[in-house]
Amino acid sequence: MSDKAAKELTGKHVLFMVLAFFGVIIAVNFTMAYKAVSTFPGLEVKNGYVASQNFDKERAAQLALGWTVSANLEGQQLRLSIVDRDGNPVQPAELTAILGRPTVVKDDQELEFSFDGQIYTAPVRTAPGKWNLRLTALAEDGTKFRQRIVLYASD
Fold first, then answer.
1. What is the mean predicted confidence (pLDDT) over 38-63?
2. Over the chain, what is the mean pLDDT?
3. Looking at the structure, do residues 26 and 74 belong to the same domain, yes or no?
């Protein structure tokens, strides 16, 4: 009888199995929720409705500038080209850019550009993978130009 009693499934065993099962599920859910919230980079705008009211007007003004932007990563240097519709280099009144990962802000870096008359260059710290360049420029006439450029860094 002692062998049979040792192998018998009791209510306590079932209770512990159920608690362990749901405990694992709850622990995984809390871990995933924490990771989702802690890596969320934040909101793009405080009020999406208010931002949408001027979107078409700002987009039309930006398109009227006729600027074309291209960027690429070469090692630990970012090369940025801004040209007008005639292909001439553009030197905006203000130029700011943030290079970062698409999903986390801990790798964001504000770039310091130098302009050689044709191309803007800035030193960067990148690891392999996908990066977003969030560019904001101000034209001489006060028109804001914004663009996000997806870049890929290799080894």
1. 82
2. 89
3. no
Angle at 50 between CA 46 and CA 54, to 5 degrees: 125
**What's the CA gap between 72 and 110, in Å, rounded?**
16
User: Are the CB atoms for 78 and 124 separated by under 8 Å?
Assistant: yes
Residue 54 lies in a domain: yes
pLDDT tens figures, 16-48: 999 999 999 999 999 999 988 887 766 677 788
Tokens of residue 19, six digits? 């608690």
How far is residue 121 CA from its own chain's centroid? 21
Q: Which of 29-33, 61-65, 102-106 has the lowest mean pLDDT?
A: 102-106
24 lies in which domain range? 8-38
Do 56 and 132 lie in one domain? The reply is yes
DSSP of the chain = -HHHHHH---HHHHHHHHHHHHHHHHHHHHHHHHHHHHT----S-S-HHHHHHTHHHHHHHHHHHT-EEEEEEETTEEEEEEE-TTS-B---SEEEEEEE-SS-STT-EE---EE-SS-EEEE----SEEEEEEEEEE-TTS-EEEEEEEEEE--
